[in-house]
Structure formats: C-alpha cells, structure tokens
Amino acid sequence: MPLLDQRQRPLENLRLSVTDRCNLRCRYCMPEENYRWLDKSRILTFEEISRVVDAFVAQGVRKVRVTGGEPLLRADLPRLIEMLAQKSAIRDLAMTTNGVLLAQHAQALRDAGLHRLTVSLDSLDRTTYRLLANRDDLDRTLAGIAAARDAGFEDIKLDTVVIAGINDRELPDLIEFAREQEIEVRFIEYMDVGGATLWRPERVVSRSDMLAQLTARCGAIRELPRHDSAPAERFELGDGTRFGIISSMTQPFCGTCDRSRLTADGMWFTCLYAERGHDLRALVRDAEAPAERLAEKIERVWSGRTDAGAEMRLASDRRGPLADAEHLRDNPHLEMHTRGG
Ligand code: SF4
C-alpha cells in the first residue's frame, strides 16, 4: 500500500538535486549572475544520497529523477547513477540536464544504467538561446542531444520554457526539430517559482494560447488520454507527431502531485512552492540514529502533507515573483536551482 498524503496522493516520485550549481543563467530560473551557494560541507556524499534514497524507496518511491542546478557539474556522476540503478525497486531512473556537458557524458551515463533523459532546450535560434540562457552554448546542447541518441537513449524529452515575446513564436519549429530527432518536446508555462525574479503575468503564454497558435500553424490537434501523474498533458498532430504541455500556471495539477524534492544538502521539500523543508541530512549523518528513523520521518511528513502551491498561487489575486533577490539570498533553499525544478 503506497504512502498517501492528506489528499490521497502517493509518495512515488523523488526529484534528487545533486548540486545547486549551474553553467547557464536562464532568465526564468537564475537571472542573477552571483548566488549564495550551499555550503560544500553540507552537500550529501553519494553514499549518503544512496541511504536517503533507500529510505524513500522503503516508503514507496519508484521513480527518481536526478536534477541540479546542472547535475553534470557534479563530479563522477555516473558512479551515483550506477548506485541508484542497482536499486531494483526504482522502476524509472531519469535525469534532467541542460545538455551543455552531455556530449562528454552520455555514454557513461547510459553504461551506468540511466533509463531516460530530459534536455532543457528553449530555442533553436542562437541569439534567442543566448538571450534566455545568458550563455552561448546552443551548439553544445545540440551536440549533447545527438550524443544521447548515439549512446542509445530512447524516449528522450525536450523541456522548453515558453516566454511571451522571446521564444513563443518558435513552438512549431521546436516540434519539427523534435520530430526529426525522434524525441518529444514539452512546452512549459513560465512559472513564478523561487528564483524567477523577472516573472511577470504578461510574460506567461498559457496552454490555450499555445494550442491556438499550434492549431493555426500545424492543423488539428488531438488531446491524448492521461495514464499517469506526469505533469505534462500530451497532444498529437495530424501526422502523428506528439508533444506535451506543462500548464502549472493556468491549469495546476496539484491534485495528482506525487513529487517531492531533495536538495543537494539533504533538505526535503514536499512542494516546489513550500517555504520550509525538512532536514534529512542531520538524520543520515547521525551515526547513533537507526536507519528506520529516516523512513519514519518521511512517513510522518508525507502523511501530513497538504501542499498545493500552484493552486494557491492561481487563487491569489496578488501575483508576482515568489521572492525578491534579497529574500532569496537570505534563503537559498527557496531557489528553484537549489530544489531541482
Ligand atoms: S505546486 Fe506543489 S503540489 Fe502543486 S504540482 Fe507543484 S510541487 Fe506539486
């Protein structure tokens, strides 16, 4: 019997941030140049991560997604992937990357047992990519996608954050690119999460706007049935090409949210918008504490969970960035790049 929260949502899906560092400065996540980074002495070792994941698996987690910041900045990452891949209860082991370093690591990740990859790619136009990422790395990201395919990764996904007036005219081109690469693109509504200090409501391109634009450019679109709690709704064009939309701003999906996030320094957040997290590092580093203590804490916290951050944000009439830069510097755990998106 899965562990359920107060809204009968199972603890199934753990997003595991292995670093808060990133080699890009995407304007919807890290628009500032300088950040207050997590204290290195607090960053969990691979062995500590493995023990914490065991406690989550004991409580029903079956899907693990490795994230960052940019996870490929964490040294020797394939070793951690191998440790996680050996946990037979984990039926889905995935990773989200910006792809900049992927060409060097794709084969090693595949050999280590990684099941799936999601690559963040917000534009195919070099100028727009640079405007969004504040770095000139489009070619490296494209090379990373090619290397992932060559390494044998199937079911690769592209994540594109759509911002009005910047890349919202590129949706059909991104679908065409994904079709040629035999991968699937998901368009993400621009979210007002921690770190998105430039977020403004008028910058959001809604699910319905995207579908209207794509119908005008690509013809009739068929909505596909949903089979799981994955955040993306999926659609199909007349020629069978599929794509997804993640619409947490205009159509939140908190009702089926089975996701939680562990930061690189062992803070557990049960919602992307949660103000406070739960310290699991202290328990995993307490040599006196029996391993069960970790699983007990996870059970206690999750069974009391009522989070529905996106629903609450949608209901509030005072909508602006979740926190300003000063507040974020005081509390770096509020940052999306610390929570792993
Ligand atoms: S806002 Fe929170 S509860 Fe809602 S889907 Fe996102 S993480 Fe889940």
Helix content: 25-40%
β-strand number? 12
Strand order of the largest sheet: 7-8-9-6-5-4-3-2-1-10-11-12
The CATH homologous superfamily is termed Aldolase class I
Keywords:
341 residues, alpha/beta, TIM Barrel, twelve-stranded mixed sheet, 12 helices, binds iron/sulfur cluster
Q: How would you characterize this protein structure?
A:
The chain has 341 residues and is α/β, with parallel strands linked by helices. The protein has a single domain, classed as TIM Barrel. Helices cover 33% and strands 16% of the residues. It has 12 helices and 12 strands. The protein has helices at residues 46-58, 77-85, 102-112, 126-133, 138-150, 171-181, 207-218, 281-285, 292-303, 309-315, 325-330, 336-339, and strands at residues 13-17, 63-67, 92-97, 116-120, 157-162, 184-189, 221-223, 233-237, 242-246, 259-262, 267-269, 278-279. A 12-stranded mixed β-sheet has the order 7-8-9-6-5-4-3-2-1-10-11-12. β8 (233-237) and β9 (242-246) form a beta hairpin. The longest helix has 13 residues, at 46-58. 43% of the residues are buried. The model has no long low-confidence stretch (mean pLDDT 96). Bound molecules: iron/sulfur cluster. Iron/sulfur cluster binds at residues 248, 252-254, 257, 259, 271-273, 307-310.
